[in-house]
Backbone:
């Protein structure tokens, strides 16, 4: 046994390893289940009792020496690996990392906002949970006015004079702007709105709007018409025509609904424009003097126009999507189609 211990001790000094694999092999050779040191521990059982003390000590020292040497070899191998540079080729292409894409509603909202920014409009946002005053009262919808039924409302709290509700349009943000900003005002208000409507291919209880407001001295209907025409041409193409039809909103007088010439059939008539050659895109009008006065603006000095459009509607026309619900269902197959979405 003495010779065996000396032999291993000598071998240990000679031991050299160049790789992690060789270190592991050495570990197995000495300390593994069938290793040389392990075998000596087996033999130790047969050692004469009077020698047990001496050999026991030697064996333990041997085991410690082997373990320490293996650890030292492992460290030196690792150092030389890192000193000789990384073992992997860092110029190899990485694993593909799928990129997300923007939601089609966000793409169109940003496009609309960018167009109006170019015209000099600021962007304003406001609360989605609003009070009756900002959604209706200040916009010339008196209590019990039948026009309130045009926008079926989700109420959050009822029973008091100014109940809380989910805003049915972002015109409420325009009221907040009129209350708080100095004139002239030129602002667009993008945001999410809510209406208590049955969900169908053409209607949803949640959708998005961009509304705009321009108030200054001497603003006329001609300015409104020009702003809408320029917007329509930026959005749908430079040969786009607009058509204005008389309409009614409590907060504008006169009021109008605007159609653009169908950019799919170019006026010939197709199933998107239902054979008419025209597509409805927004509502607008001259701000009613009552609305200006309610927010403390002198309607004898100032006038203005306002307009509002549904983002999903514009997006449907732009990409010829025939069911509004696609925009809310987060079906990846639908959303992926907009990965590289660009101008029509
Ligand atoms: N607020 C109207 C709506 O949501 C749209 C609109 C805005 C109409 C401004 C005219 C002027 O239906």
Residues:
């Amino acid at each position: 046994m003495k010779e065996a211990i000396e032999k291993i001790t000598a071998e240990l000094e000679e031991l050299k390893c160049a790789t992690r694999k060789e270190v592991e092999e050495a570990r197995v050779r000495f300390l593994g289940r069938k290793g040389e040191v392990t075998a000596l521990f087996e033999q130790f059982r047969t050692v004469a009792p009077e020698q047990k003390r001496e050999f026991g000590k030697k064996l333990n020292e041997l085991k410690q020496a082997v373990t320490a040497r293996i650890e030292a070899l492992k460290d030196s191998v690792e150092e030389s690996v890192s000193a000789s540079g990384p073992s992997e080729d860092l110029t190899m292409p990485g694993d593909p990392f799928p990129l997300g894409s923007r939601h089609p509603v966000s793409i169109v909202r940003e496009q609309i906002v960018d167009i109006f920014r170019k015209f000099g409009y600021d962007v304003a946002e406001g609360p989605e949970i609003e009070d009756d005053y900002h959604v209706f009262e200040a916009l010339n919808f008196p209590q019990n006015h039948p026009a309130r039924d045009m926008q079926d409302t989700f109420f959050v709290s009822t029973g008091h004079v100014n109940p809380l509700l989910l805003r049915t349009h972002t015109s409420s943000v325009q009221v907040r702007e009129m209350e708080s900003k100095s004139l002239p005002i030129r602002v667009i208000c993008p945001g999410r709105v809510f209406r208590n409507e049955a969900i169908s291919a053409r209607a949803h209880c949640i959708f998005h709007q961009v509304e705009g407001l321009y108030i200054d001295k001497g603003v006329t209907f001609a300015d409104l018409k020009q702003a809408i025409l320029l917007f329509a041409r930026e959005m749908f193409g430079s040969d786009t025509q607009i058509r204005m039809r008389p309409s009614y909103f409590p907060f504008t007088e006169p009021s109008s609904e605007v159609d653009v010439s169908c950019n799919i059939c170019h006026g010939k008539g197709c199933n998107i424009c239902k054979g008419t050659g025209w597509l409805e895109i927004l509502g607008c009008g001259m701000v009613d003097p009552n609305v200006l006065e309610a927010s403390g603006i002198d309607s004898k000095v100032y006038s203005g126009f306002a307009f509002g459009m549904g983002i999903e509607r514009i997006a449907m026309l732009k990409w010829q999507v025939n069911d509004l619900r696609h925009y809310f269902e987060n079906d990846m197959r639908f959303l992926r189609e907009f990965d590289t979405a660009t101008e029509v």
The chain has two domains: 2-84, 104-338.
